[in-house]
Amino acid sequence: MAGSADFDLYRPSEEHDMLRDAVRSLAEAKIAPYAAAVDEEARFPREALDALTANDLHAVHVPEEYGGGGADALATVIVIEEVARVCASSSLIPAVNKLGSLPVILSGSEQLKKRYLGPLAKGDAMFSYCLSEPDAGSDAAGMKTKAVRDGDHYVLNGVKRWITNAGESEYYTVMAVTDPEKRSKGISAFVVEKGDEGVSFGAPEKKLGIKGSPTREVYLDNVRIPADRMIGEEGTGFATAMKTLDHTRITIAAQALGIAQGALDYAKGYVRERKQFGKPIGDFQGVQFMLADMAMKIEAARQLTYAAAAKSERVAAGGGEGDLTFQGAAAKCFASDVAMEVTTDAVQLLGGYGYTRDYPVERLMRDAKITQIYEGTNQVQRIVMARNLP
């Protein structure tokens, strides 16, 4: 085959590149200036939410028929990556809006989609995801939250832990046991609203990183909701939860990628300016090799993440791509391990300055750690990959 300059197989489209430029400009102008204060004060990044909402970037994945932008999975990844490059806490706004609402998109009735995706797309509400519990982390199927049928309602009781943006979000996808005999096949999914009677929240967790994104327990105390708020059929909730994670783990890879890129960009600028022994430390081969390794690993993570995003999009459109589970787990696991290595090296390159809060790399290092843990620890990702070897 003859070569061609417009051989588009392994590059994002022009629209994707334009989206990246737009999000990067917005992130640098409207989100980056607040990132250090958001971390220092452990406060919700209100400025970022306002900027993202004003530019329709807070939930780009919502389909057009429900008032959303209808962005594909790669576009969603690029938005999250570019926001995470300046502020990981803020990148959890678009990421968790997708995580919380995807069960409704994948399995919800038309009525549920209309009711809950519209306000999300408009920016009137955020969406959180309630799977984990105090005694059900990696073993999510061991959950104890119960939903008992009562006429045309369900009554929910239980505690959900590690819920991102809890208290800020209006809507919550909640997994609960409807048939205790059936383990994972006895779990159903529901939409719970912040204003439902019996819903309350614990104190925000005091965390190592992503301090601007509140993580709280969600308490369900005799929460009575209409039966039509069940997402899909009874007993299909766990399958929906797992299918959701196949797609959304790629958004965590994107977040890790952005954090790593932000750290490399800062370190690159620093080593050009910092002089020791009469010349910039960037002239020393040992430093150059560190930067080369950082850039190489980020590029490998990006290619894996973008390919997984493309696969996610094809699956969402009805394609039978059987190895999305492997690809999503691989992207998340690899990119988050890379983010931890790269941010640690960035701190090293800044020396003593890297260890202080006057420079952003220590924040990026703290923020990177969670990407190896949430949406399935990297140990669990390796189990998932081993069970789904292509």
UniProtKB/TrEMBL annotation:
InterPro entries found in the cross-reference section: Acyl-CoA_DH_CS (IPR006089), Acyl-CoA_Oxase/DH_mid-dom (IPR006091), Acyl-CoA_Oxase/DH_mid-dom_sf (IPR046373), AcylCo_DH-like_C (IPR036250), AcylCo_DH/oxidase_C (IPR009075), AcylCoA_DH/ox_N (IPR013786), AcylCoA_DH/ox_N_sf (IPR037069), AcylCoA_DH/oxidase_NM_dom_sf (IPR009100)
Alphabetical keyword list: FAD, Flavoprotein, Oxidoreductase
GO molecular function list: acyl-CoA dehydrogenase activity; flavin adenine dinucleotide binding
Domain of life of the native organism: Bacteria
Acyl-CoA dehydrogenase/oxidase C-terminal domain boundaries: 235-389
Cofactor(s) the protein needs: FAD
Chain ranges of the Acyl-CoA dehydrogenase/oxidase N-terminal domain: 13-124
Domain Acyl-CoA oxidase/dehydrogenase middle: 129-223
Keyword Oxidoreductase in annotation: yes
Reaction(s) this enzyme catalyzes, per UniProt: a 2,3-saturated acyl-CoA + A = a 2,3-dehydroacyl-CoA + AH2
Assigned protein family: Belongs to the acyl-CoA dehydrogenase family.
Protein name from the UniProt record: Probable acyl-CoA dehydrogenase fadE25
